[in-house]
Amino acid sequence: MKVAVFDIHKFEKEYLLEANGKKNELKLLDTYLTVDTVELANDCDAISIFTEDDASEKVLDKLKKLGIKFIVLRSAGYNNVNIAYSKKLGIRVARVPEYSPYAVAEFTVAVMLSLNRKLTRTHYRIMEMNYSLDGLVGFDMHGKTVGIVGTGKIGRVVAKILHGFGCRLLAYDVVEDPDLIQQYGLIYTDLDTLCHQSDIITLHAPLTEQTHHMINERRIVRMKNGVMLINASRGALVNTKDVIDGLKSKHIGYFGMDVYEEEKGLFFEDHSEDILEDDQIARLMAFNNVFISSHQAFLTDTALKNIAKTTIENLDCLEKGEACKNEIK
After folding, report:
1. Cα(first)–Cα(last) distance of the chain, in Å?
2. For residues 115 and 256, is the Cβ–Cβ distance under 8 A?
């Protein structure tokens, strides 16, 4: 098939080409899929998109007119695709449901440790020949209560790692995992109780209507003073303005964010020569107790290999008209 690959990045290109071999003709595009760029998929049978591409109703209409039969995502999340409308049009959509839960889980815990032990501040001090330890006091992870919001594939690995640190584990999920209860002594509870009791809260839930802005002013005020909040899942799980207010009042003691609800056009791009127009992220960058990374948690060679491999397998399966286990129903 001829496949238009939108929003291709340098870090993933070699993995995708290697996984594809000579199976498909890939048209690599470094632009987002939008209503204005959709014509770039002309003469193609399928498209591949990433997290910030737009597959809304208007775009899907144009894709249908171009003869696009399949959409394969190079991601697990698919909130950028109007699935119901794609079904109506007969465009089949598949995703990469799992690429490496270890990559995201390990990164999440690394951010916890970096914030706790102030590793970023330490590095910059040393580079300036400042070897003072003043202001760098952290805390033992052992014995701390960590609330894990979402105990799917990634949340389970986070629980395993933190159990090794000797943390007390709380969790909130609509589906409870009995293995986590048995193996790690994890306790399921409601979200408000988790917020109230946790020293550290880490988010690993999908973005839905129910989880949108689940971390907001009402829940932040229930949290412990000085709580650490980590989001390496979906940006819109948190109300960014409310988190900034919590940081300003010092109610939130640490905030780690690998995702941002307004990240489109910002993350994955080099803006070093530009004027930063996003006031919210500019304010977050001003806090010395905030760790920001640009949607990097998944970025390991293992994850990139798995994403590329599954993407090509999805294309093969859809082209043959077979049932695809990764198709979004």
Report:
1. 23
2. yes
* C-beta separation of 241 from 280 below 8 A: yes
**Do 113 and 119 contact (CB within 8 A), yes or no?**
yes
Residue keyed to tokens 């500019």: 282
Q: β-strand 2-5 against 46-49: which pairing, if any? A: parallel
CA 7 centroid distance within chain: 16
CB 95 within 8 A of CB 325: no
Pick the catalytic residue from 234, 261, 277, 327: 234
Task: Please indicate whether residue 212 is annotated as part of the active site.
Answer: no
User: If you ran DSSP here, which 8-state letter would residue 327 be given?
Assistant: B
Which of these is catalytic: 295, 313, 319, 322? 295
Q: Measured between alpha carbons, how far is 191 from 181 in angstroms, rounded to an integer? A: 17
Q: How far apart are CA 97 and CA 328, in angstroms?
A: 10
Q: What pTM did the predictor assign?
A: 0.91
pLDDT at residue 79, as a whole number: 87
Question: In the structure encoding, which two tokens stand for residue 196, read together?
Answer: 């109230």
CA dihedral 295, 296, 299, 300 (to 10 degrees): -150
Q: Please indicate whether residue 234 is annotated as part of the active site.
A: yes
Q: Render pLDDT for 73-123 as a digit per residue (tens, 0 to 9).
A: 999 889 899 999 999 999 999 999 989 999 999 999 999 999 999 999 999
- Per DSSP, the three-state class of 36 is coil
Do 52 and 80 form a contact (C-beta atoms < 8 A)?
yes
181 within 8 A of 188, measured Cβ to Cβ: yes
Q: C-alpha distances in angstroms, 16 versus 26, 151, 277?
A: 9, 30, 33
The predicted model gives 187-213 an average pLDDT of: 97
CA atoms within 13 A on the CB side of 267: 20
Q: How far apart are CA 251 and CA 192, in angstroms?
A: 16
Residues 118 and 138: beta-carbon distance below 8 Å: yes
Beta pairing partners, 170:
147, 187
